[in-house]
Amino acid sequence: xxxxxxxxxxxxxxxxxLRLSCxxxxxxxxxxxxxxxxxxxxKEREFxxxxxxxxxxxxxxxxxxxxxxMSRDNAKNTxxxxxxxxxxxxxxVYHCAARWLLRISRNSGxxxxxxxxxxxxxxx
Length: 124
Prior knowledge:
Blueprint: E1 4-7, E2 10-13, E3 18-24, E4 32-39, E5 46-51, E6 58-60, E7 68-73, E8 78-83, E9 92-100, E10 113-114, E11 118-123
Parallel strand pairs: 2-11
Antiparallel strand pairs: 1-3, 3-8, 4-5, 4-9, 5-6, 7-8, 9-10, 9-11
């Protein structure tokens, strides 16, 4: 089992940057594929980015490709989401999620563990 805690959210102007972190508990973090999802008010939760357990492969939603970069540091049990050129439509609560030893999935139902989320607000 793994517990996830996100941090790094906040209020930023359009065009700005934020770096989200997700710290995980447990000694098996390096065996989890990790994902970032976001949920805006009145909308369904949507996939943002994913990274396999080794960190060698990543996958991004078309809406964030070339602006967001996901990475992980297995020695620190942490994944990151570097968000550049932020847009008002990026405003949402961002959650990290974990799934055991499987490929990246864009389906939130495929992830077993979730953090509480961190709010990102982008003003125009």
